[in-house]
Amino acid sequence: MKKFDPTTLEIYRALYTSVAEEMGVALRRTSFSPNIKERRDYSCAVFESSGRVIAQGDHMPVHLGSMPMAVAAALREVAMGPGDVVAVNDPFAGGTHLPDVTLISPVVSSQLSVVKRKQRTTDYRPRTLFFVANRAHHADIGGATPGSMGLATDVYGEGIRIPPIRIVRGGEVCEDVMTLILANVRNNRERRADFEAQIGSLKTGSTRLLEIVERRGQKEAREYASHLISYSARLMRHAIAAIPDGSYGAEDALDDDGISTGEVPIRVRVTVKGERARVDFTGSSPQVAGALNAVDAITVSVVSYVFRCLLGEDVPASAGLIEPIEVIAPKGTVVNARHPASVAGGNVETSQRIVDVVFRALAQAIPDRIPAASQGTMNNLTIGGIDPRTGAEFSYYETVAGGMGARPELDGMSATHSHMTNSLNTPAEALEYAYPLRVREYRIRKGSGGRGRHAGGDGAIREIETLAHARMAMLSDRRKRAPYGLQGGEDGEVGRAFIIRRNGSREQLASKGSWDLQPGDRVRIETPSGGGFGK
Predict the structure, then answer these.
(1) What is the DSSP string of 350-396?
(2) Residue 228 in contact with residue 16, Cβ under 8 Å?
(3) Would you list the domain boundaries of the chain?
(4) C-alpha torsion sign, points 456, 481, 426, 37
(5) Tens of pLDDT, residues 377-398
(6) Strand ranges for 138-255 from DSSP E
(7) Which residues contact 176 (CB under 8 A, 6 or more apart)?
(8) How many other C-beta atoms can be found within 10 angstroms of the C-beta atom of residue 350?
(9) Global pTM?
(10) 3-state SS of the chain: helix, strand, coil percent to 5?
């Protein structure tokens, strides 16, 4: 590969990253559901013509690391042309879980102005220059439980599964495909509005990339995309080389799968040799009946995230980050499940535990750089039913913040989203405006963080009252095993949840399941806290 100019490389890093960020802004501003507009449960990225990721927005780690596999699946299955948009949410084709729907669109040279095409090339045939993609968590994608995050025992019970398929052809929405999808989800007007926001976000990304090409030329723009990927790989190799050579094992477990009561162990061995690392999950639990199975895209995404945390520089978030790392996730296990396993919680719960176990292994090698365990769960809460104010269906979905693990030189932050989620809590005003729900209490769970030289962050308390007959589902964890402390720091506190019935009775809930709610019933979640660091 030709040498590159470092200044120009930094300009292109900023340009491509700004495209992904602007796509996210467009998606957030034009979406309809609070889950995307307020919680920002979405991610955007830019890919080169072969499908390697060039740049990502500062969005959701669990989305971003796995999105390249969805793009690869789309490229295998569909020949995309100008103005096409392909949708996919199939966990066994690069997706994560069904509510996360990825849209992908090509950026084609024929979309450039005629004058610029003639200036830049003598070959006027359409050529794919880039791909743009976004992934958004839809508040409902069908299935037996409102919010599509229930305890199904196979993927068929979790909602509608979308293989790589066009939903826009040549700039026109494929209404038959859209109608089929919307017929299988709750609150389909909100779903359609969010799909339209995703499509508009892709158009924004395409426009900005074409502007870059028109200013700088196709050749330079494509060359520097490849340079960014190579540069990221060099930085990651340098970071791995700073870890002492050796083999480091660790184990942790999920509380249960919601169907049986036994723990679900996850084991890892991280082997570092020179500038390369192997992350081997052999020995992890076989896939389970409950909805905690992760597909390989999630596991690769987690490993990419953990090692990216070791990079202190403003490194390009490109495909190069994973190049020096080999991930071994045995097929048929909870970290690489086979079809038709249920997967709703693999994306949100198992991903967090994989983070914990990989960090725990690395703490043996570089103890002064690894934090104690954070809350280790996303505390997924869904409530759905009929809104008595409008007579329309509603589906509310939220992940609830908790404590961050203490760091080697700092306390952990309290009541924040950490690791594989980068979302926000829905503001009380937005929640109460959009749904027949009322926030009764929302505060920090004071004093819950693990003690140590540096204290773990405190969890949060969130109590929500329903004003309608509703069905509630919860997928959570760290109700039995506490988030671990490191270097002599104490463990954090486990989480817990209750239904407080309108007659005043109080019912403690399992970490996973679904329950009926009557008007006046309240759901109270007390989230886990972070572990402490040091004695």
Answers:
(1) IHHHHHHHHHHHHHHH-TTT-PPP------EEEEEEE-TTTS-EEEE
(2) yes
(3) 6-234, 371-535
(4) positive
(5) 999 999 999 999 999 999 999 9
(6) 165-169, 172-173, 246-254
(7) none
(8) 31
(9) 0.94
(10) 30, 25, 45
